Each structure stands twice: as structure tokens, then as C-alpha cells.
Amino acid sequence: MEKKSLFNAQDRAGKTLESPGAYPFTRGIHPTMYTKKVWTMRQYAGFGDARSSNERYQYLLSQGITGLSIAFDLPTQMGYDSDHPLAQGEVGRVGVAISSLEDMEIVLNQIPLDQVSTSMTINSTAAILLCLYIAVADKNGVPRSKLRGTIQNDVLKEYIARGTYIFPPSPSLKITTDLFEFCKNEVSEWNTISISGYHIREAGSTAVQEVAFTLSDGLTYVQAALDRGLKIDDFAPRLSFFFNVHNDFLEEIAKFRAARRLWAKLIQERYEPKDKKSLLLRFHAQTAGSTLIPVQVDTNVIRVTLQCLAAALGGAQSIHTNSRDEALGLPTEEAALLALRTQQVIAFESAMPSVVDPLGGSYAIEEMTDKIEAEAKKLIETIETKGGVVKCIEEGWQQGLIQEAAYNYQMDIENKKRIVVGLNSFQQKEKHPAKILAIDPKIEKEQVERLKAFRARRDSNKHQQVQAELLKVASEGGNVVPVILKAIHGHSTLGEITSTLEKVFGRYKG
Questions:
Q1: CATH number, domain containing residue 362
Q2: 210, part of any domain
Q3: What is the total count of domains within the chain?
Q4: Has residue 198 been placed in a domain?
Q5: For residue 286, what are the contacts with CB-CB under 8 A and spacing of at least 6?
Q6: Which helix (H) or strand (E) holds 318?
Q7: Judging by DSSP bridges, how do beta strands 193-196 and 239-245 pair with one another?
Q8: Residue range(s) defining the domain that contains residue 155
Q9: pLDDT: which is higher, 76 or 1
Q10: How confident is the model over 51-76, as a mean pLDDT?
């Protein structure tokens, strides 16, 4: 059956339904949305050493992903080299180990950096990882103007929900802004931050809290950039967001619409940008890892399918679908492929993308959108009344609300007020346990040996000079990113750069 690509209700309960691509962008940031091009399909991946991860990326690219999404191990996230005593036993466990330029060159081997959009889920060491990425492009002759992708670089949510912070909030916020300033001129097509609600929701927040805390963080980054002397249109068009997709199908669709509309209104009313792109809430969505269960793992495929569809109906610019086995460990190649195929079936077989905003005008969706927007706005105003995001973080205010919400959610599951198929209802004895991807212990040993050889080959005098320069710039309050890039080209490691900055900023104890 032929269908129109756009349905526009003239009136819904006394309200005019605006067009997609028009302020405040409730129905999507583009007039045509997926009718011309579907969302970018990313599969978050990374494990073991750089070579193992590169093989997985090459495989996924051959199977049809349209954007890379790199996961880093905990030592990399926390600013430790693979041979640091605190890294022992964690190297390559939950992502790829990256300590040096050599590691980054291996992980990106034969990947066309001028053609592939790359997302890097890294925060406290975001500036270092982006400089490593740029350094690889420089060595390969790829112009910086051709680099496209996103660095998460959202350290505020680390204090709220995740914990992989290094420095205290204020200097961390300063480094985030340094990256904004650097990328404006040097890597103009790069999204300098992915303001993340994903981890806030994974920690147990409600949908309203996810929207409110994420947008509050976003406003804090905006103000920090303005205080630096940047103009709103210098950096706001490159801001991006990262949201969770939970199980409440209709609520999640409404959540995305509410977040998009509220952000546009807040930026317009407070800053009056001249560039329309400064108003756009462009977002990546990932299905909810916290909803996956370790038994009857095939049911996770169904959860992920519904969550992916909700993200698409909500207007995501890119989507990652979790693998069915992620409640047990890192995804196997087979499970990762099935997760990608889930996106592809929705995109290319369902015909859903042929209609712009299919649920626009739905009484249920519109009312939920209005309610989420109003409640999130009220929560944002409360944060501002209490002194702002950083002050609330230091007082543990957001953390307390999330913990309460997480407790209530878990109690609903335990009391069967919330049914989880296979977990608290419809249980059965497992006949064939799911395969689990195991990380070979020798990977850590080989990674450490390669890192030591890397240090032994470098010019020690050059390394020491650039570290002294980094210490000086950081101490004087200058932009540290150009010197970090210089240090990377001089073969300083991630841990060494972090250690130098730590001498100035200290390490946050929480």
C-alpha cells in the first residue's frame, strides 16, 4: 500500500502540531528524517588488545555498520597505562586497552578515517584519546577537517552515576571546555561532547530524571564555554547527546521528543543563537544494558528489538543495539552480528522509516511528551535554585535521587509489581548455557611488553621536555589540548600525560 511520507494533524485537542524540522523540533531535527537516509548504525565494541578490537571493527564494517563505536578498558578510562599496578587484572576486560600512539595505530589499522564516523566512549581522558586519534590521522595524511565522529567527553555524569573520574569537577570541566575551543578550529566536523543520560538511566534513574540531569549537565557545559569567551554558535552546533532506551516503549518515545523540545526552548530563550543548528538536540541511543537478563538470554533479543524501534520512532541520529549475551560478559561475534541485524531489519524491512514521525499526533505520545517536558523542566529549575550542577554533585543530591529510584525499581521487580519474563516470572531450567567471550590472560602480558618496548624506543629528552611544557601550561591555566597532542606525537603515554595533569589538578576522591 502506498502511504504519504508525512502526516500532519491540523489540530489535536486545541494544539497545532508543528512540522518535523521546525522549532522546537518535537517531531525531529530534519524535515525528512529517515525517508532520505536512515540513522547511523553503530555497534559499541572493544576488548582485549588493539589487534583483537581492530579485527572486530573490520568484521562489523564488512557486515554493514555505518559508524564505529569504541569501548575502552577501565585503566584507559581512569588514566592508567596498562603496566600500572592498579591496572593489573583489568587490561582489556571491558574494552580495548589504549596506552600509546602505537596502540591507537593498531586499533585503527586499515580503517578509512576520512570516510568512517567514529564514536569514542571516553570521558576523563577524552582529550588524550581524541589527540591519539588525530595523531593517527596526521601520520596517515588524513586532513583534520575530514575527521568525523563524537567524543563522549561528559565528565559531569561520571560524578553523578558512573565513577570513572580522575580530576575534581572544576578542572575536569575546564579540560572539557579546552577541547571545545581546540576543535572549533582544528577538527571542525567533530562532535566535541556527547552529553550522556545513558549512564544516569543505567544507574537507576527515571525517564524524567534522565532528561533533567542530562540537560542540566548540557547547560553547565554551555555556560562554561561562554565563560571561556566562546560564542554560542561557535560550539553549540557540535554538541550531541546520548540517551538510554528502556523498556517502557511509549514513554521512551515521548522522552526523546520531550528532551529535544525542551533543549531547543532552553537554548533559544537563554542564548538566542543565530544559527538554527545551535538549537538541535542530536542524539545517539543505546538499548538498555540494565534490562538484559542472564537467563533465557534469547528473550534479550526481543527487548533490544523493541528498544531499538522506540529509539527510531523517537528520532535518534544513531543507534547501538546491545547483544543478547551482555548480561553475562562481552558480546560474542555471533551475538554482536545478530544485534546489528536487528537494526537492519527495522531499517530496511519494516518500512517504518518511510514515514516522518509516524506517532506524531498520537494522544498518548503527545500527552506523555508534555508531561515529561514539564516535570524535567521543574527538576532543572530545582538544580539551578540549589546552586547548579557542580554544587549538587558535591552534595550528592542527584546521586541520592537516582539511588532512591533504583531501589524502588528493584523492589517492584522483587515484589512482582514489574514482570521481567524469565527472571521473576515464566522461569525455566536452562538446557544450554550461553557461550561467553573469554579474554586470554596472555593479552595483558603482551600489552605490557609492547608498552615497555614503545617507551624504550622514544627520545627521552623530547618526552621530558614536552611533559614539562604540559605541566607549565596546566599550571598557568592555558588550553592543555594542543600540548597533549604535541606530547602524543612525542610518544608520551596516556598514563604519563594524566600523571602530569594530576600534579596540577589532583585526583578526586569522591
A1: 3.20.20.240
A2: yes
A3: 1
A4: yes
A5: 44, 198, 242, 243, 244, 245, 319, 320, 321, 322
A6: strand 318-320
A7: parallel
A8: 34-414
A9: 76
A10: 92
* Degrees to nearest 5, angle at CA 174 with 172 and 177: 115
Chain length of the chain = 510
**Alpha carbon 41 to chain centroid distance?**
14
- 299 lies in some domain: yes
> Which cell is 372 given?
515529561
- What are the cell numbers at 46? 572493544
* Nearest C-alpha neighbor of 77 from the set 155, 137, 150, 135: 155
Query: Which residue from 408, 429, 409 is spatially nearest to 420, judged by alpha carbons?
Result: 409
Q: Tens of pLDDT along 435-470?
A: 777 778 899 999 999 999 999 999 999 999 999 999
0.90 exceeded by pTM: yes
In DSSP terms, 318 is beta-bridged to: 40, 284
The answer to whether residue 176 is domain-embedded is yes
> By C-alpha distance, which of 334, 301, 326, 325 is closest to 433?
325
Is 12 exposed, middle or buried, given 0-12, 13-18 or 19+ CB atoms closer than 10 A? middle
Given a cut of 60, whether residue 14 has pLDDT beyond it is no
Enter the C-alpha cell of residue 123. 570521558
